[in-house]
UniProtKB/TrEMBL annotation:
UniProt PTM: Binds 1 heme group per subunit.
Signal peptide residues on this chain, from the entry's feature table: none
GO cellular component term of the entry, any: periplasmic space
Superkingdom: Bacteria
Protein name: Cytochrome c556
Pfam families: Cytochrom_C_2
Keyword Transport among UniProt keywords: yes
Keywords on record: Electron transport, Heme, Iron, Metal-binding, Transport
């Protein structure tokens, strides 16, 4: 009885591991970058919306980090869509590369603008609302066209 239970648990554990994305694959790398971008932008938005206390230094560091992160995921989109993995990218990413790259550049420009605004001391939360909204709009525009929900 114990051996059957142990064998069953082992099988469930192995099957659960099959759904994981290889963190070293292009899909795994871009997913990790997008998750880090999301966490960073949520913290910045949280500081402006009162969910987190506003901290000038943390905000400026977060804006710089987001700007750096925004330039990295695009290199992990191969020329042809991967057949394996659990990508949330639509086929249009590969079919409409010019538009996809345009939206990537718009995000990069928005994060650069936010980074610049976060370097003007003293930081005023009200002055940062528009640049943060621009970053959020750039993310949303790409998600609406190229992400599967």
């Amino acid at each position: 009885m114990k051996s059957k239970l142990l064998l069953g648990l082992l099988a469930v554990t192995l099957l659960a591991g099959c759904d994981r994305v290889d963190p070293n694959s292009p899909l795994g790398k871009r997913q990790a970058l997008f998750e880090e971008m999301l966490r960073t932008s949520e913290d910045l938005g949280g500081m402006l919306r009162g969910r987190l206390s506003f901290n000038e230094q943390r905000f400026a560091e977060g804006a710089a980090k987001l700007d750096e992160l925004s330039r990295q995921p695009w290199q992990h989109f191969p020329q042809v869509r991967e057949s394996d993995g659990d990508s949330q990218a639509r086929d249009e990413v590969w079919q409409r590369q010019e538009r996809f790259q345009q939206l990537a550049r718009e995000l990069e420009a928005a994060t650069a603008e936010l980074r610049g605004a976060a370097q003007v001391k003293p930081l005023k939360a009200r002055a940062l609302e528009a640049p943060v909204a621009k970053v959020e709009a750039a993310c949303k525009a790409c998600h609406e066209e190229f992400r599967i929900y």
